Amino acid sequence: MAATVKKSSSDGEWTVVLPSKGRHGRRRKPKPKVQEEEEEEKPWISDDLEIDPQRQARLNKKMEISMNKIETSEFYTSFLNQLKSPEVSEQFRLVLASETQLQMVMYGIGSIESYESPRLQLSIAILMKREFDWVGDIEVFDPVLSATESSVLESLGCTVLSVNEQARREALKPTLFFMPHCEANLYSNLLQANWRFDRLSRIALFGNSFQMYEEQVTLDPEVVRATKRIVAARGIASEFAIETVSDEFFAAFHDSSWHFFSAGVDSELPLLVSEGF
Ligand SMILES: C[S@@+](CC[C@H](N)C(=O)[O-])C[C@H]1O[C@@H](n2cnc3c(N)ncnc32)[C@H](O)[C@@H]1O
């Protein structure tokens, strides 16, 4: 039976729930999610089909507060400084190559209506688009999004996808994958779909630290399986950790990094395909 991850109703923090050992405490590090395969790309329809104008208005207000909280924070200043630093901006330049914009694809944002962390994560992505003209359109998918949340996302200029791609989008053009605190299988799917240097070099990935996954590798075969490709990608990845700066932003951004992948010849990539990873 698979481990599941649930929100604690009291504080909205992610908690890892393992079937045999009962509830675990507050999640502070990205624990590799061990999830049964459900990997088919398929059309997706929200369970919650009605747009509720009152909830919509409340959520618009919450998003306004969240964007303001980020924009006026030291955390955001540090986030922007990192993006503008020579090391990181050079990585984005390499991903862009001859293109002028990076499409942004956001997977696993979570419920922006119910929790602050997803709102802060969405806010920073939108602010990033406003700050940098090289950030292009934002596409969003998370199976938990309600019709009301989708309408607010659209009003903020995002496109909500109607297909669950299982994070298997091929980077046929330069793409910024914004995947805050996703489960390991989604990063793994993304890597698998792009396991060639010409595609990997078109990816900028914001997500759980790959270094952290490598450090947390255990002997549990399910965890090894879920993180194998992530750990293999470490060898060709440049990683830049996000500094959370203050406790206010810890829950939303802890253990997150920017990841970029170097160019090379495909024969140098670890051969994982035949092993079904
Ligand atoms: C651990 S939660 C993180 C939520 C939020 N980003 C946060 O930090 O609180 C992982 C999220 O991934 C979403 N997810 C699961 N499968 C997905 C898929 N195929 N595509 C996009 N998102 C997915 C889940 O619904 C969940 O909201």
From TrEMBL:
Region annotated Disordered, chain positions: 1-44
Q: Where is the SRR1-like domain?
A: 91-260
- Mark out the compositionally biased spans (Basic residues): 21-32
Quote the cellular component terms of the Gene Ontology held in the record. cytoplasm; nucleus
Q: Give the record's family classification.
A: Belongs to the SRR1 family.
Q: What is this protein called?
A: SRR1-like domain-containing protein
